[in-house]
Amino acid sequence: MSTSARVRADACPGVFATHDAADGPLARVRLPGGAITAARFEALADAADDLGDGALHLTSRGNVQLRGVTRPGLAGRLAAAGLLPSPSHERVRNILASPLSGTAQTLASALDKALCAVPELADLPGRFLFALDGGQGDVAGEGADVCWRDGAVLLAGEDTGLRVTAEHAVETLLAVARAFLRRRGTAWRVSELDDTEPLIEGIPGRIVEPRRFPVNPGLPIGRIGEATGVAPVFGRLTSAQARKIAKAGNAVVTPWRSILVLGAVEAEPGLITDPGEPSLGISACVGQPGCAKSLADVRADAARVGRTPRVHFAGCARRCGKPAREHVDVLATEDGYLVDGAFVPVGELAKALAEKGQQ
């Protein structure tokens, strides 16, 4: 059973239950597997212009957020564009899939349809995360509650020893989700359970000795065959940039705040296509003025540091959007930052992070 004793409700934002941020209501639009057609990308860009702050904000789960949504009509627009297939399940359609794996992307689409067809699974916590890894080891390292990795079934990132074919991947992940609902108590994540073995009991498949798989997170930036890997700075995509991507073709939004575009995209300010760009290693929460809890304008400070090791700037102890992989933790305080726990004045951040990169 669950070892967690949650005292507050799961408040993950969605389309119907938005989050009241300092810059206005925040809506999160789920993109299972990250896949989005050109037409739907344009629909999101239009919604951002007409109802929000004029930008699409990519998340660490391959979803898109609209900020400052102060005007009505978002749900209707999304439903008309096919981005809201199940209002009852919209907050639980949290599915990662390897961007470069056709198998994983196909399974993500099938999982989304099957998930939305099971009424009881609408009660999953908004933080419960599915993943489908084609064997690349990319999304398997992103902290999913249940992951199918080219046959292997992982719970909270750990191999269970259960092996199922791609044909049975969707039914297996849904069976784990059902079992989690029965045993969760007040837990939001599989990692909060004291015993995960019951989650796979009775699931058909082959049992082998569990192993530790290597992970290789991230999407290459630049040309990838006929596609292009692009990264908006800090995951913020202007509506104009979104339309430019839509003109290039369909796309996959990744959990690394990048986009695999199935066509050619040229670089422009704020849209990175050069794998050598220094800012690729930097991520940051929205910070001030968008978040009332933030103690600093972290994105402005991050933009001044230059080349760094992989680093995440956070405006408060919640550390929203921090990457699952190893990184330098930069946490805002009232008068500076804690860099991996050591205080550094704002004016010395660049030097401190450069030294981190040499260690």
TrEMBL record:
Molecular functions (GO terms): 4 iron, 4 sulfur cluster binding; metal ion binding; oxidoreductase activity
Pfam families in UniProt: NIR_SIR_ferr
Domain Nitrite/Sulfite reductase ferredoxin-like: 27-70
Alphabetical list of SUPFAM superfamilies matching this protein: Nitrite and sulphite reductase 4Fe-4S domain-like, Nitrite/Sulfite reductase N-terminal domain-like
Annotated transmembrane regions: none
InterPro entries to which the protein is assigned, alphabetical: NIR_SIR_4Fe-4S, NiRdtase/SiRdtase_haem-b_fer, Nit/Sulf_reduc_fer-like_dom_sf, NO2/SO3_Rdtase_4Fe4S_sf
Keywords: 4Fe-4S, Heme, Iron, Iron-sulfur, Metal-binding, Oxidoreductase
Descriptive protein name: Precorrin-3B synthase
Organism annotation: Amycolatopsis lurida NRRL 2430
